[in-house]
Amino acid sequence: MRWKQLDLAGWGRxxxxxxxxxxxxxxxxxxxxxxxxxxxxxxxxxRSYGDCAVLTGGSAVLNERLDRIVSFNAATGEVVTxxxxxxxxxxxxxxxxxxxxxxxxxxxxxxxGGAIAADVHGKNHDRHGSFGDHVRWFDLLTADGQTRRVSxxxxxxxxxxxxxxxxxxxxxxxxxxxxxxxxxxxxxxxxRRVRDLEGFLAAFAEVRRTATFSVGWIxxxxxxxxxxxxxxxxxxxxxxxxxxxxxxxxxxxFTLPTFALNPLTVRLFNEFYYGRVPRSGRERERPFVEFLxxxxxxxxxxxxxxxxxxxxxxCVLPDAEAPKGLQRxxxxxxxxxxxxxxxxxxxxxxxxxxxxxxxxxxYTLALDFPRRSGTEDLLxxxxxxxxxxxxxxxxxxxxxxxxxGFRAMYPRASDFEAVLARVDPQGRFASDQxxxxxxxxxxxxx
Amino acid sequence: MSGGELKMTETWLVLGGSSxxxxxxxxxxxxxxxxxxxxxxxxxxxxxxxxxxxxxxxxRVEVVDFDALDFDSHAGTIRRAKEFAGDGTLNIFLAFGxxxxxxxxxxxxxxARRVVDINYTAVVSLLQEAAPIxxxxxRGAVVVVGSVAGDRGRPKNYVYGSAKAAVAAFMQGYRxxxxxxxxxxxxxxPGIIDTAMTWGLPGVKGGASPDIVAKxxxxxxxxxREVIYTxxxxxxxxxxxxxxxxxxxxxxxx
Lengths: 446, 254
Prior knowledge:
- By secondary structure, chain A is an alpha+beta fold.
- Chain A has helices at 27-30, 87-94, 112-117, 125-128, 156-162, 197-210, 263-275, 288-292, 322-336, 375-388, 403-409, 413-423, 432-437, 442-445; strands spanning 4-8, 17-22, 40-43, 59-62, 69-73, 78-82, 99-100, 135-141, 147-150, 171-178, 180-181, 186-194, 213-218, 230-237, 250-251, 282-287, 298-299, 310-318, 343-348, 362-370, 392-393.
- Chain B has one domain (8-249): Rossmann fold, CATH 3.40.50.720.
């Protein structure tokens, strides 16, 4: 297997890391990945935001060419795919046949391997859970060179360590998971304005029981009277049985200069976004994929944030703490006026199956911060608030979480490390994130 | 099936079916309604591709073991493909190839011969075997993936390049022979393509997506084009490269 020197970074493009990178095109080639000198990490579409798929001084193994759908059972919705199959593939092949991915991240470019490693969730988490909840088994290449078929029955601990395990247990070769019925390729999207945080909490308390899909957009620049105003979106499958025309995505042609994104331009954007929904609300029919993956029509959108890149912050707060915690987070965020676009507010229904799964029952808030002086300090304050309210930060977005913060937020970290001690005692699999957070096989910790 | 006219099923024999270009081509052709017979050495890999194509396109897709260097097996492979095509039209997409580094070839006489055998001799053997079938069928398309490396011999890649040049010359004659039978013969000359063959090669930064080669190849086959460069700028790049006098070219380092 040939290794190519590439500068790899998370989607936030903070600090690219030069890494020898392999890109196997056949499963047989993947075995050679373990011959990488030193430690390594598997990498999907590179759509996680931080440093979980880079490793300073290590190697990367890309799954993008292992992109085949291996089997499909139309009676049960059970599908087997290679790890490099994307949500776009699933939508293109199965939506016309009445099936959808059980949980969809915000971009269809993400891969199934990445979806398992991050135990991704979508706008239907209350109803359907996260991606890992629908995984039956996967084939995992572990550090000893073996490929194991791992299910909750064959090896529950390794299963729980790999779901949401950020690639640290090995390389996922293929996976079996269940698709859910999708009644249409269109959804009826209902949008309405929400005045404040109280309004959002009341709205979510209602829709998380009644709506299939729900998401809130908060104006993260709004102060005073506009504080925590936003748009509530809910969606149900439409009656329409047609097939929408595919979108023609456009690229952001070049990296914008950093001054292009300033509090004024962002406030204008957010004002427009809020104002486009009439006071009385509106309902429209939209292609399902456009509702699920709104930003996919803009390729390479990280370029909007300029050369320094950006951070994404996403935390979840348990239901009881959410009103107070969200208030404090949003106060901190709006006071910073850090030129953040909309913040996304969603509800999550319950815990995932992984030792490091992100979801818990509660409210999750996500937003971008252009990387400027002081952004890291702001993120540290947000981590503190999250912790004070019993919440946790999503590892797929994280680049700055502290070790102590990680231990407090993820109480099953030691269970996770016990599995690593068994399947990867030398620590062959690692990432800059795992090193920053001090995640190690238990034996190496001693 | 408009106006009650029965449309002939197109069938492609894809030789070297595990290569990135072949996989892209198979997806494009199956998406366009063709049946496929995937031929290559890595049976497990071809089985995965065949399953994938069946699920994505609901076309008929099968796999056959094939080794370009096993010349005695070529007749059987072609026969099998004709059977698979049945009453439909057999077409061939030939995408196997072997490109070690020139330094490795310079160090091994056997390797030089293997490069010629795979990239040239096997092509001749297979297409000669297929010729009577195409002449009887009186329709169809033969597409062979050549290379811009065959347009000009370079110190860095001349054994591989010479085999590809020989293929181009073979295809010229074969094209004339097939023309009389109503069969089109297309030589596809890809530039630098982002595949396992070029991944991590010194001096190669990126390369075009194999999907572009696949799309251009399928379009060229349908139009019966003779020779195409893909992506298209390579036609002009190679026009310049070919125009450099040998006296100058031998001193250049590329």
